[in-house]
Amino acid sequence: SPRFFPHRYLFLLGCxxxxxxxxxxxxxxxYTKRIPVSRIQSFKVSHADCPKKGIILKTxxxxxxxxxxxxxxxQDLMEKVMWGQxxxxxxx
Length: 92
Prior knowledge:
With 92 residues, the protein is an alpha+beta fold. The chain has one helix spanning 72-82, and strands spanning 5-6, 25-26, 40-45, 55-59, 64-67, 87-88.
């Protein structure tokens, strides 16, 4: 099943300081099964520089799943979750 994958780049010593920031957390595949709102601990939006926009859900079992923010069922889930959760932009 698709899960969250940290996407990190290593830079060699001597790189110029003008190197643009790189994505820290990106979604490459989306989890498509239904997720009960009671299983969601928190969520954050993937980094703006990622190739795909995604939402990274963290379950109560500390599992991170990427979901598609364009999916209506995910939008409905996020609306329910936002009433009691802190949202992170992923660009910290």
